[in-house]
Amino acid sequence: MRYSDEIIEEVRSRNDIVDVIGQYVNLKRTGANYVGLCPFHNEKSPSFSVSPNKQMFYCFGCRVGGNVFSFLMKYDNLTFGEAVKNLADRAGVKLPEEDESPQAKKMRDKRQTLLEINKEAAKYYVYQLKTPAGEKGLKYFKERALSDETIRKFGLGYSNVTSDDLVRYLKSKGYADSLIIDAGLASFDEKYGLHDKFWNRVMFPILDANSKVIGFGGRVMGDGKPKYLNSPETMIFDKSRNLFGLNYAKNARAGYIIICEGYMDVIAMHQAGFGMAVASLGTAFTSQQASLLKRYTDLVILSYDSDGAGTSAALRGIEILKEAGLKGKVLNLKPYKDPDEFIKNEGREAFEERIKKAENPFFFEIAVKEKEFDMSDPAEKTEFHRFIGKKLCEFTEAVERENYLEAVAQRYMISADDLHKLVAGIAAGGIVKQSVKPKSGKPIKEIKEDPARKPQRLLITWLADEPAVFTSVKKWVEPPDFSDELYRGIADEMWKGLSDGSFDPAKVMNHFTDEDEQREVAELFNTNLFKVETKDEREKAMHDILYDIKKSGFEKKLSMMPSDAPERWNFTLDGKRALEELSRAKIILDT
Q1: 222 found inside a domain
Q2: What is the model's pTM?
Q3: What is the pLDDT of residues 272-285, one digit of tens each?
Q4: Who contacts 457 (Cβ-Cβ below 8 Å, separation ≥6)?
């Protein structure tokens, strides 16, 4: 839901940016601003600045910036709407309901009730773990070397042997049978009536990215089947769109996320200090889960079991990550089966070294394929080399393909010239997209920024620093004169605020929710203007900026107008007359 500008501004104005960011970053006062270490990239010297006057933040190292909404969106990976809701709750601002229809309200209420039921179940399982009946569950966790702190952190619990234990508890809390079933915690049949979905199991609550309990996983005590059981799909639980441990991993800020197979792997890794670990929920890794991870990182390390099934899962995972536009690597756990076993035997530092040496997915695929060939047989060895050639042809960029080709030739002792010929032969079949060279033989020049943007950028920065010059500016330039769409949008908001005395850089930011746009707008409002010494030089500089903006805006509008448009003649005359007037004008800056 898009809230009104008035509501958004009320929420922003009632959340001081220094107070909010100060909850996440250690800030120190330096002059008019506060500074600290940037939470969005690794640095030793603080380059992260928060301005209480502008109510904006900006990092001069990684160029990330914005207002209080932007910060929360990036830090907690929230949508704009989610950030507004969080800050509204913090400030006690009541937001309008998204949809007042009876059906929509009914669905919202049911969803909220299911979340409450799951939360009550989680509390009950935790309680049962501490009772005499839960001793075998607690013993299991202790045998897996989990500390009391880790057990508490992950809310681990136990479901009793009694088949309707949880059902009776939830009914005592006033929840209807149908809702307990819809929450995925109970089943009904003619023989047993309403009975628990989970019993005689250690319990792992599954939380969404916002730390709401949406389901459970349970491991049976003893030899019962199935060994692991997950909650069924419900209104609040979709296995393919959630990941175990993501509520913690999203804030690890390690620069990557590790995905493994099981709950215990994730928990053991977090306990050892690897808080970036997550696991899929009893299903194969999905494209929806990859899209979810993309909100938090651009590098995913696959840490599946080292057996055949784990290798196959890693190969599937590589393809899914590619399709999602994520970089991937594969962790080598041998001679151990999984991360939990590796950490218990080798320790944290050894596991960290394995992470640093995680395999490039290209070489992982080749290494797996190599096992299918008898390398002592010349015919099979040749087939293996052909497979490598085909894989190299998947790189459409010539430089990247060449780098991998050289690395493959060195690793597998293949003549680089022969490998080049092999790849060229395969490419001739149309597998590789050859880069097009200019007919002149000259290198293609890099596309440069439109020079018309510079004066527009300078004027916006100047006005943000010195709002008093607006009186001189508005006589000659208006927002429609800005030829760049983004800058025109910024100018439109600035002109409104500067005209009625309500201009606030952070308020302007409310209108830009795209991350790239936020970055550019924040940079405009946090850039130091060029140094101009004398009053005459300042006025000359302003004159040139205004003229360039007016001229580029006029030329762009004219270029978009049909050549046979009736109004083109008058528009051209008026535009040239205005430019001529501005060229002769003397700009006076009384500041």
Answers
A1: yes
A2: 0.64
A3: 999 999 998 877 88
A4: 487, 524
